[in-house]
Design a protein that fits this description.
Blueprint (H helix, E strand, L loop, with lengths): L2 E3 L16 E3 L6 E7 L2 E3 L2 E5 L3 E6 L4 E5 L8 E6 L5 E5 L4 E6 L7 E7 L13 E3 L6 E5 L10 E7 L4 E7 L5 E5 L6 E9 L2 E9 L2
Parallel strand pairs: 1-8, 3-6, 5-11
Antiparallel strand pairs: 2-18, 3-4, 6-9, 7-8, 7-10, 10-11, 12-13, 13-16, 14-15, 14-17, 17-18
Amino acid sequence: MGTVYALSAACRAFLFAVMLSFFCLTASATVHNITIDNTGFSPFTTNANVGDTILWTWQAGTHTTTSGNVPNGAATWNSPLTNASPNFMYIITTAGTYNYFCSVHVGMTGIINVAASGVENLDVLETVTFYPQPCNKELTVDFSKTESSAGIKTVELVNYYGQTVYSATVDAGIQSLRIEVANLPSGIYFCSVSVANSRRVIKVMKDR
């Protein structure tokens, strides 16, 4: 079972240092927001699908989001939620029930119920490549080895707050796409390529 560790406040750009390098997911992924203050997690129960993202956001106090029981094969996590580290993002890859808690306060708990999503054509986007890694001025998404039958693709770049900072539609037959990232803050992003009902997501590091 993999584990996701949060780093210190001095390294906030690396809050997600251990994440999945890539995977194929349904194109209907959603970001679910959970807030934490001195009264607890809100909402207490979150219903999600495989491929969705959970985003915890600090509002007050000193807390953590720490996994308890999780489905077999799912990554565990343990991240501070404080003024210095106000967000933590977790991408769901396994169906089942996730229990989590605040390690600072007894009784502050939450539940995430995850349903399986239909995933098809998992090999369609396996040959898409992303470079350079890390990137500084441009990120290139290379489709040159992708089957011509893959069709029109949607490319998105999302920051670790779950905000889309770039989105484009790429016609079938286009060999590559260059994304200007020079003006984006340094840190961790997630670049996704979607076609039909398949999606590939990869972690992208943006340097200064």
